[in-house]
Write a structure and sequence with these properties.
Helix content: 55-70%
Number of domains: 2
Strand content: under 5%
Shape: globular
Strand order of the largest sheet: 3-2-1-4-6-5
Number of strands: 6
Largest sheet: 6 strands, mixed
Length: 556
């Protein structure tokens, strides 16, 4: 009894540095996911769901994937908010923020009994500072949900399978996680269905041998039953949109190809770094980690590793549209991304554990992760204010040498008005800009905000500047409560949204610049628009060739 007590106390003393690392990592992860989230502008693919929910009811959303892909369950939630006049940027981001934070808790908890605490704590730290997972938690797209569901699906299946089919709760968790992820993003199924396929193959092989046949048949029957349940749920969820949009879905296959260069850039993005030497070191640590996890969790390690290889190969062979871009390929592999970081975490622990003092070992792990963060893109994202972390400048490619939003930038002459704002305290002034298109190729604000360091909002130009396709959604929509985008007409009626200046953009801006990449829709007649605004708000506060600025508050 005395020896057991001493052993327990020794283990507690050895574990406390890892608990400290895990708790600190959780706090950092929450901060990275939540900081400035309320001020973030919706950009690019985040608008797919908004455009769909405005023109379709619940049935229309559930029965289609759409030409521009949207996540069906998220869009149904957004439509419900819209019907209750509560659709806002915060409400759109909240489910993904919750999923991103939940991953930091759920993932290590699921494997708490089979992985050493050192590996689990280091894994939490890597999950917390993963640039991709941070980004997914901050954007109104389904990928944070896919990461969480991927972990639950693989581990739940492992628990059910290793208990030889016992544990109905784990089977239910696997079915729910797999089917919800497939409903949210169809390609997630090439990963989450793989453990079921692996176990089926192993059971069939065991059925061939007379020595294992007696035990294999019951498991095979249980696997068939589980497969039927999964298939039945998936048919209910995704058969209608597949049937209705089969032509659109088929048209997106065979469109683009993965190259060796794009595969390399995808690996950089998955591991959150920007250079080949760091990638090589992480791959080596990952290989060590696979062997370490294999020792404790053979089926889980084997199913995840094979799912990663097979799943990414299947996606590459399917050649979906835009897959040549690293971010697109990396997003499709989201369900296995947390496990790639688990292998790296196990590798880091295997290397540093040669230091026998636990506190020193935990400190070395923390130092290694800190160095990894400094080699990645996170330090360049987190400055205040930065309302455009989802912009392709930050997310298209982590290597500035190959990111076209860095290499092809021609910002052009910067208005003296923006330079003058730099003299004011950061975040003390708010600008409302119109017209604008919230797509990365047409938004100069990430670069301009670094110059003027002030807050930005957008305004729908219609109908004041005429009715056209230059706005992100119809100005007649009534169920939105967006805090960062409103209507120019409301400003002319006296609203200010807490802003100091209204900025009319007199000319379109594109990246790449010039006629080779034109503005996607007609540009409104800004001279006539300016005259209408001036008739309501009085003479401009500032004017040059690029912008016309109206003061909404007395000058400070």
């Amino acid at each position: 009894m005395r020896r057991d007590v001493l052993t327990s106390r020794a283990r507690s003393r050895a574990a406390w540095p890892w608990w400290l690392l895990g708790i600190a990592a959780l706090a950092v992860g929450v901060f990275l996911r939540a900081w400035q989230l309320r001020s973030q502008m919706l950009l690019d693919d985040e608008w797919h769901a908004v455009r769909m929910l405005i023109r379709a009811d619940m049935d229309g959303i559930a029965d289609h994937f759409g030409l521009a892909d949207y996540c069906i369950p998220l869009t149904l939630y957004y439509r419900w908010l819209y019907e209750h006049a509560a659709l806002s940027e915060w409400a759109m981001h909240l489910p993904l923020l919750v999923a991103g934070i939940a991953l930091l808790v759920v993932a290590p908890w699921l494997l708490r009994r089979s992985l050493p605490i050192a590996t689990n704590a280091t894994w939490v730290a890597l999950l917390a500072v993963s640039p991709l997972l941070v980004y997914f938690s901050r954007t109104a797209r389904p990928y944070a949900l896919l990461a969480l569901c991927g972990v639950i699906a693989f581990v739940a299946f492992r628990h059910w399978y290793e208990r030889r089919g016992r544990g109905v709760g784990w089977a239910v968790a696997y079915v729910v996680a797999t089917c919800f992820a497939g409903w949210a993003h169809l390609l997630s199924l090439v990963f989450t269905l793989w453990p079921l396929a692996c176990a089926g193959v192993l059971a069939l092989v065991a059925c061939v041998s007379p020595r294992t046949r007696a035990d294999a048949w019951p498991m095979l029957r249980r696997l068939l039953l589980l497969g039927v349940v999964v298939a039945g749920v998936l048919v209910c969820l995704i058969a209608p949109p597949l049937i209705n949009d089969w032509g659109a879905m088929a048209g997106k296959a065979g469109a683009d190809s993965v190259s060796w260069t794009s595969l390399y850039q995808t690996l950089l993005m998955q591991f959150g770094i920007a250079d080949a030497w760091t990638l090589a070191a992480l791959l080596a640590l990952g290989a060590i980690g696979v062997a370490r996890v294999w020792r404790d969790e053979r089926f889980l390690a084997g199913s995840v590793l094979s799912a990663t290889i097979v799943g990414m190969a299947v996606i590459a062979l399917a050649r979906p549209a835009w897959v040549q871009h690293a971010l697109v390929y990396a997003r499709y592999a989201t369900p296995v991304l947390p496990f790639l970081l688990l292998f790296v975490a196990a590798g880091i622990v295997a290397v540093v554990e040669r230091v026998r003092v636990q506190a020193a070992t935990a400190s070395l792990c923390a130092l290694a992760i800190g160095l990894l963060v400094m080699r990645g893109p996170l330090p360049s994202w987190f400055y205040a204010p930065n309302q455009f972390m989802g912009h392709a400048l930050f997310q298209f490619d982590y290597d500035a040498r190959t990111n076209p939003y860095v290499t092809q930038l021609e910002l052009g002459p910067v208005s003296p008005f923006f330079a003058e704002l730099e003299k004011k305290p950061p975040g003390s002034v708010t600008l409302i800009e119109t017209p604008t298109r919230a797509q990365s190729n047409f938004v100069p604000d990430p670069w301009l905000q670094r110059i003027h360091r002030q807050n930005v909002k957008f305004a729908l130009a219609a109908p004041v500047c005429g009715v056209g396709d230059w706005d992100e959604f119809p100005y007649t929509a009534t169920g939105t409560r967006f805090a960062r985008i409103g209507k120019l007409g409301d400003i002319l009626d006296g609203a200010t949204w807490g802003a100091d200046y209204l900025v009319l953009r007199m000319h379109p801006w594109t990246l790449p610049p010039g006629k080779d990449f034109p503005w996607p829709v007609a540009w409104p007649d800004m001279a006539a628009c300016e005259a209408k605004v001036e008739a309501k708000l009085g003479a401009p506060f500032y004017r040059d060739d690029a912008i016309t600025v109206f003061a909404l508050k007395p000058a400070r």
